[in-house]
Each structure stands twice: as structure tokens, then as C-alpha cells.
Amino acid sequence: MSKKGCLVISLDFELIWGVFDTVEIKDKTEYFLNTRKVIPEILELFKRSSIHATWASVGMLFNNNWTEWNCHRSKQEPRYANSKLSSYLYGESIQKFDFRDICFAPELIKEIYETNGQEMATHTYSHYYCLEQGQGKESFRQDLVQAIAVASKIGIELKSLVFPRNQIKQEYLKVCESLGIQNVRSNPDNWYWKDTSASGLSSKIARTADAYVNLGKKSYPFSDLKAKKGFPLEQKASRFLRPVEGNSSLRKLKLKRIKSEMTTAAKNAEVYHLWWHPHNFGDQPEESLLDLSEIIKHFEFLRTKYGFQSFNMMELGNKVI
After folding, report:
1. Residue 8: in which H helix or E strand, if any?
2. Are 157 and 151 in contact (CB under 8 A)?
């Protein structure tokens, strides 16, 4: 096993499919168009500093248009008790208005995949919610089958998965492994990450506060990564990179904590897994890129001083397995 620490980055690439149940699409047009513009700039920052990353994409983004979207529906769509969570029903309601560049992004997927060190992974086909009432194991399987199918059409083999809204169901991990998924991102061990489908105020407050105050160590030793037969390798997330704050003091404090946690991982030869959504850069793209540049600059310092490494999820999994 590696004697040097590593930074793992994963991004949940969703566009509208990750938030359709919480926003009005007409109010978020500029936000998602900004997201499309900022992704090539993120890739450029990664290229300059040889940063490797995993991009977990919602499978619906692979479609070119609504005709393809209608052809690529899962054989068994989830039937959530709360129908507002269905991306299929949502798509039916908006396709007459088009919104093509907010719903589909095959061009960006191609650009990501062709950039050195970038892994294209899956965020399920339909942004599937594993802990919601009404869905089941077979509809999850069919959803993942569809995600694999649309990716394979353009020569992409999916080896890693990030569960939408971090809703992990242990019995579904075997489904992932049976379909060739070797790595999944799992949640931190902290109590406030135990049930991501819960809406408890204390958990929400703790997750927010965790970005600014010390609520426990975030990096972890390579020995925590243990592959179990019949299951994909679970790679714990360490830190969510929150969107740029309006308060400059909180923004500085957030970046200070991330850099301090990275330093701990580098000094102790541990894993530090940073994640976010590309659309988190949609409101303030220039400031967001500045924050990312600061994080990458600190990574470069740690790489020089401690041999800190950059892995995507598949690369880390290959080292462990």
C-alpha cells in the first residue's frame, strides 16, 4: 500500500436532474449555463496541476436530445411514493419547452472523459433515490443497467458510482458489484451523516457547522479501505466543498480548514476525499474558481514537501484491490 497520502476528488455532475424537485427551471437557466461554462475551466485547472478526479454523471446527461431521452427510459422506472421525486415524470413535464443545454451534456461528458486523469463514473441514470419509499432493488438494477448502456455507446466503461444525495442502501451494493461497479463513494463515519434522507435539524446544523469548526478528523488511513468479496470498495468522503459564502470570514475559514485537513492527510500518509457538484460554482463562478485554485496551489505545495498524490476513485480502488 502507498506510503504517501493522497487527495481524491469526486464531482456529482447533474445539472437540472439533481435539483428539479427543489427549484423552478426557468429561474435557474443562467445558473446552469454558468455551470456549463465553468466545467472546461475546472478541467483546465486540473490539467495544469495534474489533478485527477472522478466525475459521477447522471446518465440522462448522456442523451443528445429529448428523442434519445424518450428512447433510453429504464425498463422498470422507480415508483416513488412522492411522485415529485421522479425525473421521468419531471422530464415529461418540461420536454415541450426544450431546455436542452440544462438537461443534456454529451459534449461536456466527452471533454471530461478525454482529459487526462479524469474518470467518468455514474451518478445512476435517473438520479435514483435509494432510500425513498416506492422504489425497489430491481428498479435500481434496471436504472444502473441503463446508465451503463448509454455510457458504453460512446466507449465509456463505468467502474465507480456516487449515490444521489448520498442515499446508500447496503443491499444495493451487491447489485453494483454484479454490474461491474468496483468503487462507490460512501459517507463519513460522523453521526450527522448516518441518515442522509433524514431532515433532522440537528444533522443539518452539524453538517453546515462542520465546514467551519472542528467536528472531528476528516482524513483516514489506507487501512480503512478494505475490499469485501461480492461488494464494491467503499471510499469514504472527507469534505464537501461548499459554495462560495457571502461572508468573507466564513469563506476564509472554510478554505483554511480544507487546507489544514489536506496537510494532515499529507503528513500522516492518509486519504483525503473532497467532493462537490459542478453546479455549486454556478452562482459565483469566478470566485469559485479562485477558491479551487487556492486549494490546488496548496496541494502542489504538499506534493512537493510530502509527496502528496492525486487519484481519482478508480485509481485509488486499483491500488487497494
Report:
1. strand 6-13
2. yes
Here the contacts of 173-181 (C-beta below 8 Å, separation 24 or greater) are 173/231, 173/232, 173/234, 174/230, 174/231, 175/137, 175/140, 175/141, 175/144, 176/144, 176/232, 177/230, 177/231, 177/232, 179/141, 179/144, 179/145, 179/148, 180/148, 181/122, 181/144, 181/232
Q: Which residues pair with 56 in a beta bridge?
A: 12, 121
Would you call 136 helix, strand, or coil by DSSP? coil
- The residues, ordered by sequence, that sit 6+ positions from 85 with a Cβ below 8 Å of its Cβ are 21, 129, 132
Quote the pTM value. 0.95
289: cell is 474558481
The string of pLDDT tens digits covering residues 85-107 is 999 999 999 999 999 999 999 99
Residue 286, burial from CB neighbour count under 10 angstroms (0-12, 13-18, 19+) = exposed
Q: pLDDT tens-digit profile of 248-280?
A: 999 999 999 999 999 999 999 999 999 999 999
Say which CATH topology domain 6-320 has. Answer: TIM Barrel (3.20.20)
